[in-house]
Design a protein that fits this description.
Layout (H helix, E strand, L loop, with lengths): L5 E5 L7 H14 L2 E8 L3 H7 L2 H26 L5 E7 L2 H11 L4 E5 L5 H7 L2 H8 L4 E4 L7
Parallel strand pairs: 1-2, 1-4, 2-3, 4-5
Length: about 150
């Protein structure tokens, strides 16, 4: 029988996450699971290097990582009280980082939110969640925001 000891919960700190964090908390409480919050920072070097000096780029990266860490800690404190939470920040394409962690880590499930993108916007920006669902060897629970249901 499968167990749910550790749930991977990818979070985009630039987007609302409360709508799927509550599901992760319910699952963790029900099964006594740990939660790992993951923020995958997309690499933006190709944009920085054209216009900025190395020291400015390093400062921007450091500031972005620090802001993400603050945001993830706030999510853990505000929404995941009583749950054993760890925080990970990785740099790379979000879907690649999520899939890499599911392959190499000790996770039993992924719980993540989706966007309401449709049509051209979906084609241009893609869907991290759909790529993770297609390629993950773990069960993936995706949660749509309420505004998608209207």
């Amino acid at each position: 029988m499968r167990t749910l000891n550790n749930i991977l919960v990818p979070v985009d700190v630039m987007e609302p996450s409360g709508f799927f964090i509550e599901y992760a908390k319910m699952m963790a409480e029900k099964f006594g699971s740990k939660i790992t919050l993951l923020y995958a920072r997309p690499p933006l070097d190709r944009f920085y290097d054209v216009y900025l000096t190395d020291d400015v780029v390093a400062k921007l990266k450091s500031d972005a990582k620090e802001r993400a860490l603050v945001e993830l800690n706030e999510i853990a404190e505000r929404q995941l009280q009583g749950i054993d939470v760890s925080i990970k920040i990785r740099r790379g394409q979000p879907q690649d980082m999520i899939l890499e962690m599911t392959e190499k880590g000790d996770y039993d499930m992924v719980i993540m939110g989706t966007h309401c993108r449709r049509g051209v916007e979906r084609v241009l920006f893609g869907s991290v969640a759909s790529r993770v669902v297609r390629h993950s060897t773990l069960p993936v629970l995706t949660i749509h925001p309420d505004e998608c249901k209207r």
